[in-house]
């Protein structure tokens, strides 16, 4: 079973109702879904790795910008290995 412990602060950050964060929240949700589907553990590192893989595989400039924003949020909200996803 996948280990996932998501901080309520982290979830609240994405659910704040900001239109700007809607795309980032959708990206994060799809990344977490992909990690679980691949039967891997949802951790800071796995989310970051999946985001980087998406960045490297797309040529869509707008999507890349959203991916970068999501990556920046995840890195900023998870400053250590234990972070919000552990």
From TrEMBL:
InterPro entries: AriR. It comes from the Bacteria. This is Biofilm/acid-resistance regulator YmgB/AriR.
């Amino acid at each position: 079973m996948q280990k996932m412990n998501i901080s309520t602060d982290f979830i609240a950050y994405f659910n704040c109702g900001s239109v700007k964060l809607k795309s980032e929240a959708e990206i994060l949700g799809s990344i977490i879904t992909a990690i679980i589907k691949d039967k891997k553990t949802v951790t800071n590192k796995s989310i970051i790795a999946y985001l980087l893989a998406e960045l490297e595989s797309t040529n869509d400039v707008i999507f890349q910008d959203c991916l970068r924003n999501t990556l920046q949020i995840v890195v900023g909200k998870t400053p250590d290995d234990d972070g919000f996803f552990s």
